[in-house]
Amino acid sequence: MGEWRPDVLGEGFEQQTLPLGRDPEGEVCATLVRSRPHPGARLFGELRDVDVLYVHGWSDYFFQTGLAGFFTERGARFYALDLRKYGRSLRPGQSPGYVAALDVYDADIAAARDAMGTAREGRRLMLVGHSTGGLTLTLWAARHPGAADALILNSPWLELQLGPIGRQALAPLVNARARIDPLGTHPVVDLGFYTRAQREVGTLPESPDGWRPPQGFPTHPGWLAAVIAGHARVASGLDVGCAVHVLLSARSTTALTWSDAMLSSDSVLVVDDIARAATRIAATVTISRVDGALHDVFLSAPAAREAAYAALASGLR
Known about the structure:
alpha/beta
């Protein structure tokens, strides 16, 4: 087993580096962060036999201490995974966030589960994924039936912003370029408005340099092809083999120019398309639409954030 050491989040949080070998850019690792349950909740909490594994979205890392507290106060052991080339796991010379296939993350998740000891100890596994992390965990659960007992998705990126028809039209062009120039550059489409919204509602802490740039990481054809392939798998129908709870904002805002509507809506994804796509991943899917929520519903303004946590608590019951 690896060594747990203090985490950048401070008291109550520890991290462990998970070596994953090498790829063309050098040594690769993931990082597992943990927060232990409160003593009383560990004995009597409703989730005392549950391990939670959280996976972040694109251009992101784990810093949502409030989400950790929600689960640990109910007795769960909470873990969060900074995937390879993100946040705590990003190393000099690496292309941030880049993979050419989303199933590469099977190794990251396997290493995390081994360090958590969930299966060895006979505990239940609850997966929580945000945005691209939600897509990653959805595909992982479908490839590993029976491994997860519940899947909670926070604005999961289950469909391209262009919709199904746009995705199908774009896919051949993206795939062709991915074969020729997988690490080529794309035009910048993130204008930083989502970061601005989080800052204005007061839910975005200062991040270590390079971990969460205001306009996101550069994107590459190989990565986009992998994401579109994931969307196509969702569209064709999956079975993650467990109950699913999806939390989404009630509405989306087009992020072409800044507007105050971005303080109370999802300015990243088209939430109606995500809600439709979510019905294709399991036999039982609960969808909670949270009025006033941002793309990360748990980083919204206070009223919407409280509503998101209330919906999550209701789903757990």
